[in-house]
Each structure stands twice: as structure tokens, then as C-alpha cells.
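Supplementary material to the annual report.
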Amino acid sequence: MSGRAIVITSGKGGVGKTTATANLGLGLAQHDRKVVLVDGDIGLRNLDIILGLENRIVYHLVDVVRGHCQVRQALVKDKRFPHLSLLPASQIDQKESINPEQMRELATQLKEEFDFVLIDCPAGIEQGFRNAVAGADEAIVITTPDVSPVRDADRVIGLLQHSLGDPQLIINRMATQMVQRGDMLNQQDVLDILAVDLLGIVPEDEEVVVAGNRGSPVVLNEKSRSGQAYGRIVRRMLGEDVPIPELNGHGGLFHRLGKLFSRR
Amino acid sequence: MAWGTLVQRWFGNKGSAGLAKDRLQVVVMYDRLGLSAEQMEALRKDIMETISRHVAIDSERVKIDFMPTPAEVTITAPVRRSRTRGEEPKPQEG
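Predicted assembly:
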């Protein structure tokens, strides 16, 4: 068996890579896929706390790469979801502790056992980014509809195109009301600039903070809008044709007028 | 640009999103080209010299702009107006 290794990246920090990795991983596990989440952010690990697994770590990624333990020993199994495992990052090492070749070997090994290997990429485009990308076959880029994350996303897309081809895009933290009054880039604006395929849109949602506090990703909360959005993205990743609902908040007179002229 | 966006703008959409998009398109275009300041200056100089060989221009005010949609580079070279009629350089032939 050979699974899919997907890096989740953004360039800009703080746009929701780790949250997205946790939610997509959990969502895939809910669909009975075997999933391992690899925290690629050596020195600044966070995937463990978002998943509520921070007290269960014994070994980590750098231990595995250095041969201090077997991969299997370092994997933290989520007791709530038997299909989900976490390979935590080291908190005391540097990004340079591992190299792209080692990451590639590790991913190859993980792909034999898991359907999905999701690699949470650190912010930036330096060694940590190169390591995380080296292990992947595909990429998902996360951005928010703000100027600096979109600009950085474009840069990262350019870098990814050399190695992995066109990534897919998730637009995170879309605030419907701001889009409605014309104070936030809408999905078409972002796509016009970045020119990649859209995998999904996650609305701005306070529940994400609550979920982080609890260590219980929002995809588990079926009532939350962001959780539902992640659920739809997961189904698209599994090949289902799930339409992307308009979170633009458009629907006012001008938008409908515009649509009359539009042949899109 | 989508018609929807156009219509929205005609009807006085005063939001900042349009400005964000315009600014991003320009900045992303420059980022993608990856030209350094020196390379830009070299390009400006080359173009200026080429045009000056045929037309008297105000070299201080030559401007190069990259426009994202459709992707194009625009060179604005103001022609000096001090020359009198009949003194313009003849188009070079052959």
C-alpha cells in the first residue's frame, strides 16, 4: 500500500496551517482512512496541543530520524479515533536537525502504513519548509483573504510548482459580512490573483478558538460552520464532488445584477 | 474582471477589497518577475537609450510599469516639447 503524502503550507504564519492539518486529518480518520499527522515545525510544535495529545508524547520526529527509536514507538495514537496518529515534532531541536532526504525516507516509510500522511509545514520558506515539502507528493496552501498572506501564498505556490506542481488552495477565516460590504477579498478575488484550484473555504468562526482550548478540533463539532466546511473539504480530498457554497455573502441586488451579465 | 465585480464598482462599492486586489496584483507581478532593483534600473536605462536614439525624451520622467491583467509592461517616456517644427529626427531607414 502506498498512501498520499500531502504538505499543508502557507508561507505566512498564523493563517491556520496547524488547525487545518488537525481538522483534515481527523476528518479523514472519521471516513475510516488511516491517517498520520506529521508535525514538521521542529522547535515550535503545536499540532499535539491542538489535538489534545500533548501529554502523551514520548519520542518525536528527530528521535526517529536519528535512529533513537522506531517510527512506531514515536507515533501517538489518538484513543478517540483509532485511525489517527500523530508524529510530534521535537521541541528542543532546530529545523536543521533533519534534511530533505531524511524527510523523504520517513514519508516513504509512513506511506506504507497509512492512507494519508499530512505534513504540517512551518511558516517561512527556509529549511523547515524544504524539509516538509520534500516528504510530500501533493500540497495544500492555506491563506486568509488578507494582503500579506495572499502575497506569501503566491510566493509559496511559485516555489511548490517547481517540485510538486500546482497546489490546491484553502481560504481560511472568510468573514461573510466584511466581504458583503466590500472590505474583504472574496474567493474570486483571491483566485484571480493566485490562479490555482480551490479546495475549499473555511468561514471565520469563534468555535475554532474553543476547539483549540479543548484540544478537540472543530470538525468534530457538526454544528459549527467551520467544522462543516472542513467536513466538505475532506470529502473533496476523497474524490467526492461537493460544491463549494458561496461564502461571499453576495446575494444582494448588485450581485444578482452582476450575475445577469456574468457568463461564468 | 468579472462583470459582477464591475457592476459592484459602478454602483459605488467603497470597500477596501478592490484596492487590496489591485495592490496585490501589482506586487505579485513584481514578485513573480523576481527582478532586482539593479535589473530594473538596467532595463530602464536600456529602454531610455534606445528611445533617445530616435526621439528626444525627458529621461528623468521615463517610467516602467508592470500591469497584471492582461500581463504587460508599459513604458512611459514623455517627449520633450522644446524642439521646433521640422527639427524632429527623421525616421531611420534601411
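Chain A is about 40% helix and 15% strand.
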